[in-house]
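Budget justification note: compute hours in this period were largely spent on complex prediction jobs such as the one shown. Inputs:
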Amino acid sequence: MLLSEATSAGGFFNLVPLVVFFPIIGLLLNIILGGRLGEKAIGTIACLASGLAFMVAVLLGISLIGNPEGITVPFLNWIAIGSLQLEWAFQVDTLSVTMMLVVGGVGTLIHIYAVGYMHEDVRHNGDPGRFQRFFVYFNLFIAVMMILVSANNYLMLFVGWEGVGLCSYLLIGFWYEKGKDGIGNAVAGKKAFITNRIGDFGFLIAALLMFKYFQPLAENGVFGFDFETVQELAGLVPAGIIFAITMFMLLGVTGKSAQLPLFVWLPDAMAGPTPVSALIHAATMVTAGVYLVARSYAMYSMVPEAQTWVAVVGGVTALFAATIAVAQFDIKKVLAYSTISQLGFMVAAVGMGAFVAGMFHLVIHAFFKALLFLSAGSVIQGLERGYHQVEHDPMLARKMKHGHQFDPQDMRNMGGLRTRMKTTFWVYLIGAVALAGIFPLAGFWSKDEILAEALHLQPVVYWLLTSAAFFTAFYMGRQILMVFFGQPRSEPAANAQESPAVMTIPLIVLAGVSLLGGALNLPGLHTFTTWLEHTINLEEVGTAVTSVLTKIGLAVAPVKGSMAEGAAEGGFNLTVALLSTGLALGAIALAYYFYYHRVRAMQALPTVRRTDDPLRAVLGPVFTLLENKYYIDELYGAIIIKPYTAIASFLADKVEWVFWHDFFHDKVLSGAFHSLTWLLSKPIDTNVIDGFANGLAEGTQELAALVRRIQSGYVRNYALSMFVGVILIIGYIILRGI
Amino acid sequence: MTIQLILFIILALVAVVAALGMLFSKNSVYAALYLVLNFMTVAVFFLLLNAPFIAVAQVTVYAGAIMVLFLFVIMLLGAEQVQHANTLVWQRPLGIVLAGILLTEAIYITLAQRGMVPMDQPLPETFGAPAEIGVDLFTNYLLPFEITSVLLLVAIIGAIVLTKSEKK
Amino acid sequence: MPVPVEYYLGLASILFILGALGVLIRRNSLIIFMSVELMLNAANLAFVSFARHWQQPSGQIFVFFIMTVAAAEVAVGLALIVTIFKSKASIDVDQMSSLKG
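Corresponding output:
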């Protein structure tokens, strides 16, 4: 009964501000009271805050079932400057609620995991204040991400956009005293922030262009998402402007979602704790870019060139990152590059116009990537526990090579963990298989849909993505084999221990979703498609695209409703499916060959001739290139960062300091000032003014000396002066007339 | 040229010469004596001016008391000739010049008097008689008279105080 | 015909001037004092001549008072001179210039 009530008009829509406020209340409580409460209380508050936000999202979802059109819930009048009137309003529609559910669901599970993870961290590394700080930042992130996805207009979205960037920075540099040279983590955070900023710059330019061109035409809705409004406005504006807007937005997307050329921050962001990597850099923040493109479909669908750009950028990134991931040794770095690659898939999908496929992959990827990261965290902690045990046991310690520089994240130190960390192994396996896209796990369905659409719309991108899928399966197989199979390659690995339940239970939940998630949008059922259709009207999109495409003469035969058709079909193309599955299985077989057989052969060789990775023996210098990520960071450093810092140093040292400060300030200004004061003091003050004052005194003295002579002391003189006076008076009387 | 006029001129000359003598005399005693002569002459003038009481008072008080006092002091102080370093060189000439100027002015004033017409009726016989002076003094000018007596008292006291020697 | 009053006035003024000259020129304080008496005397003469001219006895009364005052003044003045002589051993007025500014 409650459900029917809820699904009638109105429903729980008005609860939507709570998705933002529950996390905010949580973080405020933790800031104010957290110090006094214990770890358990902090963790409970944080998880409750996130969990309650998720509950609200669920309620919103339920309400939407009855009212699929969605609703805008205004909250307050935000900006009222002249003709610009913006509201802070929450948009509750299927797209935003999808994101809210992902953020809330994955977020809550990761919160629970993080309680255990941070407890271990504090136990191993001290500093209990860290626990409180972590959960404050975590809740802040949930709050801001919710703002981003529930935004009604671009500016509110930008607030959330910036906010998640800030949280990313705070959390990457969480262990700010660690890292290379003691500031490595802080440097990574800074890199993330700055690279994101470049993307934000693109976003801002796009927003400003929108303001400049749309504002004179519409009173409200200048930043809104509404399809009709935007299309109408965009129609009145030169096409070049819309292209510019969409391309600048693409710059923002490449920054936030780590695509070429601004992806460099994501691998470094692995310096943060694993829950951070899982939540922010796998499941939620990095998907904000994809979300943005999906929201802006009104504009993108009008400019096919921009769409092509987006799709190509996504495809190239996918392949690029997948190749790098093949040669990485840090367990988290592999996952990081994998994330970049999968984001490439998503960006390509929404870029092409396959919004449903893209969003579907976003949801599914969130789950299994979070699962993979959290499991990786579990593995790392297992190794750390093993290391601790080894340290305290003198007999084992002797057997360990390079004692104090043991890196628990290096896969070359792992191996054979299958028997020692059973739960972690199984969930990791499920996640990896899902990522590789093997039937019937969730990853297969979502990735397949994208590939099918790509074949339809942008064949080039299709080949890029398929190659990327091949490499994806390869590196995941490599990772599984290196970490869990074979012999333990180091003592800590031999003594690794399983993680506690508080960490493994969320893993199991996520594994379940990865297994069954495909049910969301099975071809034939298309639950997700119909769900999203209420927001992204694919019919309209299809028509708009058709008209544009026919205008430029690119009419591909059954283009009319091809998008809608394709979507209706669930993009299911048997050929594509078979090809991709075959490639995946082939890649896994190849990985098995290298990392199982070849490794065993390698163990037989003497130590000197052993390479750390069997692939290196085959690929040689190519492997080194991949291992060093095509030297992209060095390239950026040389082209951009070095000249920039050189100019900045020049300006700071030479121009600012030497010229302005030393020369201009000290010599010119100071010198002029001193000369002026010298002038004023010496000639004017000393000579003129003092002269005047002294002269006055001296004159008075001289006058007095002069007059003093009257006082001769002689009575006769006085008598004489009296006499003179008498004479004068009498003379005057005479002259006056007697 | 009445006898009065001739007498006047002679006496006037005597008076002026006596005054000059007093002025330029180096000896203080001689100067005092010259002044006595001057006073006597002026007393005669008073007589001529129908002021007998005043004339006698002049002789008694001025010539008799005051000049005697002077002579006492002169002799007490040794009446030395004071001629130390000559300071105020230009005082003398300047004084004479200024005196000359004043004289000129006085002459001018005297000669310019046109309205000095003597009274018509002749002087009464008892004009200036002691009895009349006395009556006037004790009726109209009683207050100044009494005050004058106080003044004299003050002078006496002053003189005594000033010359009293300090008790060692 | 009596002597005109102008003659007496002229004489009185000459005597007065001579007295003033004495005050200015002489350095002996006693002589100066005597010159002052001469001046007073000249004033007395003027008064009496005017009394006769205007037939007012008040002129003579005034002379009476002048004389009295002059007597008192001489007494005190001479006492002062004696006192000064005691401290300075001189009656030269030029010696008494300690008020010199």
